[in-house]
Design goal:
five-stranded mixed β-sheet, 5 helices, 12 strands
Length: about 180
């Protein structure tokens, strides 16, 4: 699922960077929940593979990662609110093909990992996996929680990624102006 998302965003960047008179839009559909579960699996993999470090020490040596929310997500396939993906709102995006930046987020005492900051091909996100995370609003300011639509605008065209989530009342969209 993540690979399909990366390819779709790169395809959008390629198309919007071309000079054309066309105004034809493209739409891509993804399961937001599947992407969150992929990201959760990836964070756990980084943690247990001892890839993450802080101040020269492996994070797995000094921090914990598991919590009841993560365990429930693996047994049910759903990550409970307010955990999940937050996407930087309405930003001008510089095309960053093939770039994946990852930064773990720790609790205030540095005892456990509570989420991560992730930039995927120019899309800045914060992923929260601990509902008890303090100061969450500092990390999610100017971000949209589980957006339904990611609109990419360049020239006179707009391409879209639609993300599916469990039913809810409001719809959220994030617009990226491509430069």
């Amino acid at each position: 699922m993540a690979g399909k998302l990366f390819r779709a965003v790169n395809e959008i960047y390629d198309d919007l960077s071309r000079q054309t008179l066309s105004r034809k839009s493209k739409w891509h559909l993804f399961s937001g929940e599947e992407l969150e579960l992929w990201l959760l699996k990836t964070i756990l993999g980084f943690f247990h593979a001892n890839v993450l470090s802080q101040h020269g020490r492996k994070i797995a040596e000094v921090q914990k990662i598991m919590n009841p929310t993560i365990e429930t997500a693996f047994s049910t396939g759903h990550l409970a609110e307010p955990c999940g993906t937050y996407v930087q709102k309405n930003a001008t995006t510089l095309v960053q093909r093939g770039v994946l930046d990852f930064m773990s987020l720790s609790d205030e005492r540095g005892e456990r990992i509570v989420g991560c900051g992730l930039t995927i091909v120019g899309i800045a996100t914060t992923f929260i996996m601990d509902p008890g995370m303090s100061n969450r609003e500092l990390f999610t300011l100017d971000q949209s929680y589980r957006p339904d639509y990611l609109f990419f605008e360049g020239g006179r065209r707009r391409h879209s990624i639609v993300l599916t989530w469990p039913p809810r009342q409001s719809r959220r969209a994030v617009v990226f102006k491509i430069k």
